[in-house]
Design goal:
Multidrug-efflux Transporter Regulator, Chain: A, Domain 2; about 120 residues; alpha+beta
């Protein structure tokens, strides 16, 4: 995941230092809330560089944590989308070796066999 720094310059000749600090505090609060918003499936696929099939498989078996789902109306029908926790996805993005291990595990038939119950 590539992080970019953005610099914004705003000219407000009539604003006091207190006004500017108040606006900056509000902007920072809103950005913090935005960082905590659950991620959509497409966002997760893009951030982690995974396919839709991988995301579905790893969500189903619990390797990829989810944050529930959201419903919205599209015409007369309701559509559901799965959501993912941003902190967990952020941590996975920092450890792409985990994704590589999951892919190897999925290719290895020994991992895909169910182990027989102990007798």
């Amino acid at each position: 995941m590539v992080q970019r720094q953005v610099r914004v310059a705003i000219t407000c000749p009539d604003a006091t230092e207190e006004d500017i600090l108040r606006v900056c505090a509000i902007a920072e609060q809103r950005l913090m809330r935005l960082q905590q918003e659950p991620l959509t499936a497409k966002m997760v696929e893009e951030i982690l560089g995974i396919t839709g099939a991988e995301r579905r498989r790893w969500s189903k078996d619990g390797r990829l944590p989810n944050a529930g789902h959201a419903l919205f109306s599209q015409g007369r029908k309701q559509v559901g989308i799965f959501l993912y926790p941003p902190d967990a996805i952020r941590q996975l993005a920092k450890r792409l070796d985990t994704i590589a291990d999951w892919r190897l595990r999925d290719k290895d038939p020994a991992f895909n066999r169910e182990t027989p119950p102990p007798s």
